[in-house]
Specification:
Blueprint lengths: L1 E3 L2 E3 L2 E4 L4 E8 L25 E7 L5 E6 L11 E6 L1
Parallel strand pairs: 1-4, 3-7
Antiparallel strand pairs: 1-2, 4-5, 6-7
Amino acid sequence: MEMGDYYYKPATITVSPGASVTVTLKNVGALPHNFYCDQINPPESSLVDAGKSADFTFTAPSQAGTYDFWCSIAGHKELGMVGKLEVK
């Protein structure tokens, strides 16, 4: 998944309920970013510095549905750095 300054690409990820998911977070922006979703375990990735990549492994929610994720750095969510986690 590409992370730029105030966006994720793709902005939607589809996973199976309860699955162990590994996402490679590639930061192509000029600022550090992360991935946060309060419905997954663990809820937050480490910060990924500009020009770096990191793998983030989490357990998807066991309930089907659509969940929001965002960058938890102050102001980034408000500037549009949000996405959807579809569990089905």
